[in-house]
From TrEMBL:
Organism lineage: Bacteria, Bacillati, Bacillota, Bacilli, Lactobacillales
Keyword set includes Translocase: no
Signal peptide span: none
Protein name as annotated: Histidine phosphatase family protein
Organism: Streptococcus vestibularis
Presence of keyword Signal: no
Amino acid sequence: MKEFYLMRHGQTRFNAQHRIQGVCDAPLTEVGIEQAKKAGQYLAKQETIFDHVFTSTSERASDTLEIVTGRTDYERLKGLRGQDFGSFEGQPEYLTPKALPDGQGFGDFFVQFGGESTTQVRDRMELTVRAIMESVAEGSKSLLVSHGPSILQFCRRVLDPVPDIHGLKNCSILHFTYNQGQFELVSIYNPVEEEYIYGGEG
């Protein structure tokens, strides 16, 4: 069995301004930095030592990882990036269409504006995370820092049943196991509120 922690980045300037942010980037705010520090404190308390660390190519994700772990020996992967919202990138969040029912996200809506479909996000996230898990040793622990919508769509692709998750706050940490090709969600922890929103540890 292998373990990995899939984590959302800390709050950014665009998060605070309620702007759509996928492949475009904005720096962490002071709040975001503090959120990452709290996440690091939680993982340290759990005595979690990571054999491997990965992040999306976005600066907000790599900065979060560095604050959480104090490490710079990570691998940046495009497959972990946020959803591409096309010409909606950087625009006010109120322009975002209503999500489709049954966890379908935004379907193909953003494709016509040069962005990604929900299926494309699910495909690349599963492909990327599965490739990581197949490349690391049995018994290893990995940390992956990614983005809220991408993480949610990964969950909706690989978990059955899918937990009732409608949004992930900044720096939420999802603990998974990977065994014989199967993903299992152990817990989701919100380090800012210091509470488990799914499952629990020990």
